[in-house]
Amino acid sequence: MNIRVLGAHNCESQDFKLASLLIDDTLALDAGGLTSSLSLSAQGRLRAILLTHQHYDHIRDVPTLAMSLFLQGASIDIYSSLAVYQTVAAHLFDGRLYPNFMEHPPENPTLRFTTIEPYHTEQIEGYSILAVAVNHPIPTLGYQVTAPDGKAVFYTGDTGPGLAHCWEYVSPQLIITEVTAPDSYQAFGRESGHLTPSLLKQELIGFAKVKGYLPRVAAVHINPYLEKEIKAEIAVVAEELNADITLAYEGMQIRL
Ligand SMILES: [Zn+2]
Ligand SMILES: [Zn+2]
Known about the structure:
- The protein is of the alpha/beta class.
- The chain is 26% helix and 25% strand.
- The protein is built from seven helices and 14 strands.
- It has a seven-stranded mixed beta sheet. A seven-stranded mixed beta sheet has the order 7-8-9-10-11-12-13, with helices on one face.
- The protein is globular, with a radius of gyration of 17 Å.
- The model has no long low-confidence stretch (mean pLDDT 98).
- Bound molecules: zinc ion (2 copies).
């Protein structure tokens, strides 16, 4: 499994892109930085997108990708919770902001939505996909993606502390999680459902207790204005836990 980090930040600029991961060129996790990061032909190779939740930085490129695929005569499967589907259908594809690519073109709509239930393994494009609920102010699903060779990555999406129940369901070699802010923002993190380095540390200690090992960890959803502090604090946590924890960046590739 080859994982490419397309967007590792919570702000966009010429250097930073919004939340998006790409697995083996075909499966995307979140759509904050798909069209802004991928060539037109790479967009055409996408087969499916898993959406964690409906916050704008995670769905932003669904309409622009839809236009690109429509013009190529292509279509794509999108998987999400019912809540995300309903919100996207009502607000992005009601025909007011943009063409309704969920129904257009009528013979083969560009976007095919399928709702996904947490805690049931689904086969999607040759991968085993397991969704688990995480802690964020709106319903959010993390996804474990397992390749046919058994290698697995768990992407939390946006989450605050409280992942303990997830560890009963997932056994990844790699966790890609969010670390939005440094520890001086811990109260903000608890309130708004985001992690800081110390909050991540507690979650990882919980993981090791249940699973008996610590996987490699890559942090995304980084606030670029606070990145230096986050990076320094993550380095301390990595040393304390004797674990491989790094900040992800746009274009980073991880091979499992
Ligand atoms: Zn969010
Ligand atoms: Zn977000």
